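User: Purine nucleoside phosphorylase. Structure?
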Amino acid sequence: MASSVVKVAIIGGTGLSSFSGLDWCDSHRPETPFGSPSAGVAEGKYRGNTVLFLPRHGGEHSIAPHKINYRANIAALKALGVSHILAVNAVGGLAPDMGPHALVVPDQIIDYSSGRENSFFDGVGGPLDHIDFTDPYDVDARQGLLLAAQKCGIESVDGGVYGCTQGPRLETAAEIRRFRQDGCDLVGMTGMPEACLAREVGIKYASLCLVVNWGAGLTEEKITLDDIHRVMASGMDQVKRVLLQSIEQ
Ligand code: HPA
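Assistant: Predicted structure:
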């Protein structure tokens, strides 16, 4: 992504509240018309490129998916001059090739969340506008993640439909069956409205999803947090390698 107009921010999700191994030299917490972002935005350098990092759930991982101030987060990154966001999402897997440990770069979204402030264009103190959201993720940023995974020798899945639920509870088996019928391959709680807010302010946005469990009812075993954390602990290292490679290339 090396270019003078590129400024990349990583939004870390569950399992990635901090990003060790990178030289973080500064921190910003811009106030926005929508309030404060989830945490200070760390700024560092990687191979000559400026990188920003914002943990979506806060530095202590204490903000639930439905309580995240998505508008403040995106407005803060925009104010800091960010051109690209690489978002990390821990998700449940629904498609047969998207079981625990899979890394997926989704290409579509179905939004089942509700009651979230999901637009800057709400007609209050600003213009009313309608973005094109046919392809919710930036095509080049997606390709960058896939190429980075390939260069790292890490398997990844190209494409998939991310279903965004309200959370914070996991789903019922019937909900997962319905999502599958709708065409969802993954289920998570934080993909929206983050993606559409980024589009509204012209930030190129792609997501790297780590599957940490099968969707509810797809296996005999109950979903346990212990199992989820075990998958996260082993998978986040790969996620970080792919992100850094993507920023470098
Ligand atoms: N459902 C919704 N969100 C999730 C899941 C899930 O099974 N796993 C991780 N995030």
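The chain has a mean pLDDT of 94. The first strand starts at residue 8 and ends at 12.
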